[in-house]
Write a structure and sequence with these properties.
The chain has 371 residues and is of the alpha/beta class. It contains 15 helices and 12 strands.
Length: 371
């Protein structure tokens, strides 16, 4: 047996491309040959991302349309030449026995409010929604892998005429790369990154500030004078708007904007707690990554967070500034060592090797015709 992963890009890091990379590495450790079908194989290598934000947005939209259409035709030819392979599709392309549900566009827009307006004002949302109606109501895929049980229920609610079978296989975490650090190393990291050492440091990581709850986090921070916040991610325009909001709240000196980072690990390791007041997440791999670094997590009840956080390794909150401020207040007053130990212990149960084994079991079932 061999595996073909269909995904626009494969590289170490976070996001869908990071998931595909981690699975590829885990398959390799188990001696299972793998191949990639990416934008390059789909003939879209010429769609390189430019420097400017507007240009990047346009090219990302073109990539999505290309990979969904031209990529689908080329992927089907690619797979026809590999009848012994089981294909795992992560994005866009309408091909492969297994499709991994990394997020439902319609559900994400509904969670943020003003659903009709959000869909109409962005033609790409209309395109992907129409594409996914075809994906879920046809026989394109045999199985849809959902990252949480809640996401499986949401998929079935969003697409009641869902045709493929559904299973749940969570994402994993690289517990060697994402690891806790001791107090001395944490202080050294903060000194190198220009972060304070005399207050509790909360960490926010994400490129969609509104959906992931940065405005709520800033409002909560205004109520907690003993906590600083480092924000990793975002475009220059988004950072400028968030910085202006922090100034209005009188907390500009306690909010540190790191911008986009190729490696978020040092920024997470430098923190004391992790915050994610998101409106919607299919999984939120970054929650597992923060736990693996020994950070207790404060998160809303979305994605994998309700399955992971138990009151000892982190706190589940309502999506409002008061709930987030209360959670920060509780952790400010608590010795963090037990929380850190519990966070790390939770993450160790979700290694990528264990997750890859579940994908291989599913692939073997499909190949044998038993499923």
């Amino acid at each position: 047996m061999r595996i073909v992963q269909i995904v626009p890009e494969v590289r170490a890091g976070s996001g869908v491309e990071g998931v595909a990379y981690a699975l590829e590495q885990a398959f390799d450790r188990r001696g299972v040959p793998t191949e990639r079908f990416t934008l390059d194989e789909a003939g879209a290598g010429w769609l390189a991302l430019p420097e400017g934000q507007l240009g990047r947005t346009v090219v990302r939209a073109l990539r999505t349309v290309w990979f969904s259409t031209v990529g689908t035709a080329r992927a089907r030819r690619f797979l026809a030449q590999r009848p012994d392979a089981v294909a795992i599709c992560h994005n866009d392309v309408l091909a492969g026995e297994v499709y991994v549900n990394h997020g439902i566009v319609r559900a994400a827009m509904k969670a943020r409010g003003q659903f009709a307006w959000r869909m109409v004002r962005n033609p790409l949302h209309l395109f992907t929604s129409a594409r996914d109606i075809l994906r879920y109501r046809s026989g394109v895929h045999r199985v849809v892998v959902n990252l949480t049980e809640g996401e499986r229920r949401l998929l079935e609610q969003t697409y009641p005429r869902l045709r493929p079978a559904t299973v749940v296989i969570p994402n994993g975490v690289d517990t060697r790369r994402f690891r806790p650090v001791g107090p001395a190393e944490r202080d050294a990291l903060r000194a190198r990154l220009g972060l304070p050492t005399d207050r509790m440091l909360a960490v926010f990581v994400g490129h969609e500030f509104d959906r992931k709850g940065l405005p709520l986090t800033l409002a909560a921070l205004a109520d907690r004078s003993g906590t600083d916040l480092v924000v990793v991610g975002g475009t220059p325009a988004m950072i400028a708007a968030a910085r202006h909001r922090a100034e209005d709240l009188g907390i500009a000196d306690r909010v540190h904007f790191a911008g986009r980072q190729d490696d978020p690990v040092p920024w997470i390791q430098a923190g004391d707690v992790f915050v994610l007041a998101s409106a919607y997440e299919a999984n939120a791999l970054v929650v597992l990554e923060a736990l693996a670094c020994g950070l207790p997590v404060i998160a809303t009840r979305v994605g994998f967070a309700p399955d992971l956080l138990d009151g000892h390794n982190g706190l589940l909150i309502d999506r409002d500034a008061a709930s987030l401020a209360a959670a920060l207040r509780r952790l400010e007053a608590a010795p963090l060592a037990p929380w850190r130990d519990a966070a790390r212990a939770t993450a160790e149960r979700w290694s990528w090797d264990a997750v890859a084994a579940r994908y291989l079991d599913l692939a073997e079932t499909l190949r044998s015709g038993a499923g």
